[in-house]
Specification:
The protein is mostly helical. The protein contains 14 helices and no strands. The longest helix is centred in the first third of the chain and has 15 residues.
């Protein structure tokens, strides 16, 4: 993605002479890119301006609870500000029953009992649960003797059941990479905790093609930047690899 393309996106995001549905999706995409570039202040200002101008005028915006609440929460954390006033101010621009308004209020109310970072999306912890007999049988075999299909099943089972030691053995014994983005994300966080940041970064870069957006404005896996468990692995190489894969072709208003 070129700087010229980003500037075009941000220009669309700040226009107010079009239908809202041709503006706010570009704003959400731009906010995600600003998070990826760790420009917390600009991301916060864009998120607030978008909510203030379109919160009650666009059912589409009000009906989506990502990524704006997390952008606001993360930007406040990065700026060492109290997130509560910011989140409550944003909620004032929305109908209380809207999905976006409800999410903003829920986060603000939860901050009295929870650490701010814990309320961001993208939690990495997985409870340790027992394997099924079939999964246990696969885990007991030499990883090198498993077929690719079996390795994929064991990766996913290790993720679902929180079996990091088995996943680690798969990685070290075969070089077989995590087959899905959530698995790679979880594995990278565990590697960071073990002090193997370079390996975590490598896994995330290799897994980027496996990340798929839920909405057209989800252009980057921004929880890698936001979550403290993953952030040490967010190197210049991962930053560049992510930007190189940004697809803005489906953003409404970009081509008009």
């Amino acid at each position: 993605m070129s700087e010229e393309t980003l500037q075009r996106l941000r220009e669309i995001a700040t226009r107010r002479d079009r239908e809202p549905d041709l503006i706010w999706p570009a704003a959400l995409a731009a906010a995600e890119i600003l998070v990826w570039q760790e420009q917390a202040g600009e991301a916060r200002d864009l998120a607030m301006a978008t909510i203030a101008d379109f919160g009650r005028g666009s059912a589409g915006l009000a009906g989506n609870d990502t990524p704006l609440p997390d952008v606001l929460l993360w930007s406040a954390i990065r700026s060492d500000e109290d997130p509560v006033p910011l989140l409550r101010k944003a909620a004032e621009y929305l109908a209380p029953e809207s999905l976006l308004g409800t999410r903003l209020v829920q986060i603000a109310e939860s901050l009295s009992d929870h650490a701010a970072y814990s309320l961001l999306l993208g939690a990495v912890s997985r409870p340790d649960r027992p394997f099924t007999p079939r999964e246990q049988a696969m885990a007991a075999r030499d990883a090198a003797d498993l077929s690719d299909a079996e390795r994929t099943r064991l990766w996913v089972a290790s993720f679902n059941k929180g079996k990091y030691s088995i996943a680690r053995r798969l990685l070290e014994g075969t070089g077989h990479q995590p087959p899905r983005w959530p698995v790679a994300y979880w594995m990278a966080a565990r590697l960071v905790a073990d002090g193997e940041v370079g390996l975590a970064t490598d896994i995330l870069i290799r897994a980027l093609p496996l990340w798929h957006p839920l909405k057209v404005w989800n252009v980057l896996p921004i929880t890698v930047v936001m979550r403290p468990e993953l952030h040490p692995a967010f190197t210049s190489e991962l930053h560049a690899a992510g930007l190189a894969r940004v697809d803005l072709s489906q953003i409404p208003g970009l081509a008009r």
